[in-house]
């Protein structure tokens, strides 16, 4: 399966619970809001208590193209940690226009911001992402 325009739900134990091509922003918003994140967060807590090897925050991962992703990770307090690859414009030697991919992490984001970021990411709205998803 190509990674372009795909989604996956990753569990704390690194397993993939669901994956496939995305069809619409509405589909991805519904998937994120309907998924049982409480169970995933409980699993993460158990794995941390057991010191059970490698774990990660559970979340929805959207991949626009290889290397460009949005990862929304619910937290126990109701906030969302957002990991987002942003394509930043730069100039090489002050002359040549190039872009640079940067991973940005925004902790304690609101649920509303996380939901709004889904269609913006899928539409490749870099200006909105750079304005609203900043390091925290």
Structure characteristics:
136 residues; six-stranded antiparallel sheet; 31% helix
Termini separation comes to: 34 Å
Weakly predicted, low-confidence segments: none
Shape descriptor reads globular
Radius of gyration (Å): 16 Å
Please describe the biggest sheet, giving its number of strands, its sense, and whether it closes into a barrel. 6 strands, antiparallel
The helix fraction, in percent, is 25-40%
Please tell me about this protein's structure.
The chain is α+β, with helices and mostly antiparallel strands and 136 residues long. The protein has one domain (6-132). Helices cover 31% and strands 38% of the residues. The chain is built from four helices and six strands, in the order ββααββββαα. α1 packs antiparallel against α3 and α3 runs antiparallel to α4. The termini are far apart. The mean pLDDT is 90.
List the helices and strands and how they pair.
Layout: E1 6-10, E2 16-21, H1 25-34, H2 37-49, E3 59-65, E4 68-74, E5 80-92, E6 96-109, H3 111-122, H4 126-132
Summarize the structure.
This protein has helices at 25-34, 37-49, 111-122, 126-132; strands at 6-10, 16-21, 59-65, 68-74, 80-92, 96-109. Strands 2-1-3-4-5-6 form a six-stranded antiparallel sheet, covered by helices on one side.
